[in-house]
Amino acid sequence: MTYKQIKWMILFVPTLIVGLWEYVRHQFLMPYISMDLGNWLTPILVYLVSVTLLNQLFSQLEKIQQELQAERAQKAALQAREQLAKELHDGIAQSLFLLSVKVDQLEFTTDRNKHEDAVYAVRKTVHEVNRYVRQAIANLKYSTNTNSEVVLKETLEDKVKQIADEVLIPIELDWNIKENVMTPKEKIEILACIREAVVNIQKHARASKGWIVAQGDEAGWVVTIKDNGDGFREEIIDSKESYGLNIMKDRAEDMKWQLRIFNHHALTTLEIQKGGGED
C-alpha cells in the first residue's frame, strides 16, 4: 500500500464505519437498541476501529516515513561523496601532478637560486594539498552527519572551540557571530584560517595564552586571534618559509577578506575582516 493510499484510508475509514453503523442502527436495530445506548456504542466503535485498523495503518505510515528518511540520508551521503571526489580531482590530484613535475625539475636543477625556488614551490604545493584535504573533510562534515540527517547540529562556534581545544596552550573563546551570518564556504575558509593561526601560536609564538574573538553581523564581521608570545616581525609576512601564513593570505584574497597581522599592547594580533566589521 502506498503512502498516499494509507493517508486516504486514515481519513475515510472512521467516517465510513460510523456512517455504516448509524445507517444499520437506524434501519434495523432501533427496536433492539435504544437511542441512548446507540449514542454510547458509537464512540466505542470508533475507538475499537482506531486501536485495530488505524493503529496498523499508522504503523505502516511511520515505516514508510523512516524508509524515506533513510533514502534521503543515503542520497545526501552519495552527494557528499561525489563532492569529495570532485574536490579530490580538482584540488589534490592536480596538485600532486604539479608536485611530481616540480620534483622532476628539481632533480635536474643545478642553479642554487633556482633550486631554492623549486624547493619552496614543492613545499608550498604540499601545504596546498593539506589545505585541500582539510577543506574536503570540512565540506563532508557540513553535508551530513553521523545520525543520517541532513541538518547541521554542530555550530561554527562548536567547531572553533574544538580547534582551540586541540592545542596545549589555553585559548579563550568569545564568539559573537550568529550561525546564519556566514555561508557554508565562508565557514570552511574561516575555520581553516583559525586552525592555521592556532597551530602557529603553538609552534612558533612560544605563548602561554591565546584569545579568539569574533563579532559582527550580516553587514560585516571580524575575527581576531591574539597571543602573548614573542611578537610579530614584519619580515615574516613576505618570507617564503611562512607557508601557513601565505596560504591564509591566499584564502583571504580569494574570499575578498582583509587580513592584518600586527602587535598591539604586547599581543600578537591576527585579524580577518569582511565588509564593515568592527575594528
TrEMBL record:
Residues 191-261 form the Histidine kinase/HSP90-like ATPase domain. Residues 81-141 form the Signal transduction histidine kinase subgroup 3 dimerisation and phosphoacceptor domain. SUPFAM superfamilies: ATPase domain of HSP90 chaperone/DNA topoisomerase II/histidine kinase. It holds the Pfam family HATPase_c. Keywords: ATP-binding, Coiled coil, Kinase, Membrane, Nucleotide-binding, Phosphoprotein, Transferase, Transmembrane, Transmembrane helix, Two-component regulatory system. Its EC number is 2.7.13.3. Residues 54-90 form a coiled coil. It comes from Paenibacillus vini. It catalyses: ATP + protein L-histidine = ADP + protein N-phospho-L-histidine. It is an enzyme of class 2 (transferase). The chain crosses the membrane at residues 6-25, 37-58. It comes from the Bacteria. This is histidine kinase.
